[in-house]
Design brief:
The chain is α/β, with parallel strands linked by helices and 371 residues long. The chain has ten helices and ten strands. The strands form two sheets. A six-stranded mixed β-sheet has the order 6-7-8-3-9-10, sandwiched between helices. It has a four-stranded antiparallel β-sheet with strand order 2-1-4-5. Strand 4 and strand 5 form a beta hairpin. The longest helix is centred in the last third of the chain and has 16 residues.
């Protein structure tokens, strides 16, 4: 033994145990080598078993024993898929499902038919009345349609009464034309006057008749038969609340009673045009309300009313049209709203009439009382 123990451990064999040497196989058949150990793989999805190949012989192990048979692979289990069942397609020949009936749409309102042209009931064309070199009415042109309620206003001496007198045939104009329902009032006065009911300003009537006789005579003069004349006289007396005075003479009537009786006489033949000059003068407020309602009903039925008044408040309240006459000229006309604008009719009238309070005369002497 050498002095280097490490070298001795390398070169000298270990004799502690006998080494058995296997007999060498014959030279014509080489000994099968053992298969190297395989590295284990990740478990994979089991595959379906396949038939063993009998043509390849099993290789024996190193000690000559036949190798152990491999474990049979587990058969693959088919995982059933979850599918949503499809709805069978509807046959084309199947009838369609009936729909709920739609609600019928409301038809669009048809546009109103165009209104036919309406002929004016009263037409004034360049109406003029002169007294020498003084023009009481100068070039007045006006037209009133059926169903209108018109008030004519103006200061004293402006020509209102003169204009109404020429319309009704009481005063012949110097020039111009008056047509009532298309009829020239001066060429065919009888035909035109059948269409008019008149209440003049300075009322002169048959005051030696009773109220009933006055209404009956007026109706007969307008062509009504006797039965109709009596019936309408009675109905008008009840409407104007004067039935208790029908047996009295007209000369004994008060101013208000005479005014209402004259208005009933103007309505008794159902005219198309009423021309009233100051119809509410001397009429009490209760009777005035009755008269106003009768006139409004008359206009609503298609009649035409033309009246004059000094009460701007009354005209603004009951009329739908207004005409303003100043110094014989028509300076404004139209609906009440168009004429007054954003003012009251009283304020607009004062503005149009040109009234100036600063030009009043000095009346300071009136403040020094006599005695």
């Amino acid at each position: 033994m050498s002095e280097d123990p490490i070298a001795d451990a390398v070169t000298e064999p270990d004799t502690s145990e006998p080494v058995t040497t296997a007999a060498e196989p014959p030279s014509d058949a080489a000994a099968p080598r053992p298969k190297p150990a395989r590295t284990p793989r990740r478990p994979s999805r089991p595959r379906a078993p396949s038939a063993p190949d009998e043509s390849v012989p099993e290789t024996p192990d190193a000690d000559g024993a036949p190798p152990a048979p491999r474990p049979a692979a587990k058969p693959r289990t088919a995982t059933p898929r979850t599918t949503t069942p499809r709805t069978a397609a509807k046959p084309r020949s199947a009838p369609a499902k009936p729909r709920a009936p739609r609600k019928p749409r409301a038809p669009k309102p048809a546009p109103p038919p165009p209104r036919p042209p309406v002929d004016p009931v009263l037409e004034l064309e360049h109406l003029t009345k002169r007294y020498g070199s003084v023009a009481a009415v100068e070039d007045v042109t006006l037209a009133l349609d059926p169903g209108t309620f018109t008030g004519i206003v103006g200061p004293n001496g402006a020509g209102k009464t003169t204009t109404l007198s020429m319309i009704t045939g009481l005063l012949r104009p110097t020039s111009g034309m008056v047509r009532i329902a298309g009829v020239d009032a001066w060429r065919h006065p009888l035909v035109a006057k059948r269409q008019i009911g008149v209440l003049p300003d300075r009322l002169h009537t048959f005051d030696r008749l009773t109220g009933a006789q006055l209404l009956y005579t007026t109706a007969v003069l307008h062509g009504l038969d006797r039965a109709t004349a009596r019936r309408r006289s009675r109905e008008l007396a009840e409407a104007f609340k004067i039935e208790h005075a029908m047996s009295r003479l007209v000369a004994d009537y008060s101013s208000g009673m005479l005014k209402k009786t004259a208005l009933a006489a103007a309505l008794i033949h159902a005219p198309r045009l009423l021309v009233l000059d100051e119809p509410f003068e001397s009429v009490d407020p209760v009777s005035a309300m009755t008269v106003v309602q009768i006139l409004k009903d008359f206009a609503a039925a298609g009649g035409t009313v033309l009246l004059s008044s000094h009460s701007m408040e009354l005209v603004e309240r009951i009329c739908d049209h207004v005409a303003v006459i100043v110094e014989g000229r028509l300076i404004a006309g139209g609906t009440v709203d168009e004429v007054r604008g954003d003012q009251s009719l009283q304020e607009r009238f004062v503005e149009l009439a040109g009234h100036d309070i600063e030009t009043l005369a000095d009346l300071t002497w009136l403040h020094r009382f006599s005695g």
